Amino acid sequence: MYCHSRENGNPEIKALDPRLRGDDKRIANMSKIKSSAPGKLMLFGEHAVIYDYPCIVTTVESRIYVEVEKAKEFKIDAPQVKDTIFVEEAVKNFCEKYKVDNKILIKTYSDFSSEFGFGSSSAVTVATIRALSKLYKVNISKKEIFDLGYKVVLNIQGVGSGFDIASATFGGTLYFVTAGKIIETLSVEYVPLVIGYSGTKASTTKIVKNLKPNFKIFNDIKQIVEEAKISLVNSDWKRTGELMNKNHQLLQKLGVSTQMLDKMCETAITSGAFGAKLSGAGGGDCMIALVSSDKIKSVESAIVNVGGNIINVNNNSQGVKLEKI
Ligand code: PMV
Question: Is the pTM of this model over 0.85?
Answer without folding.
Answer: yes
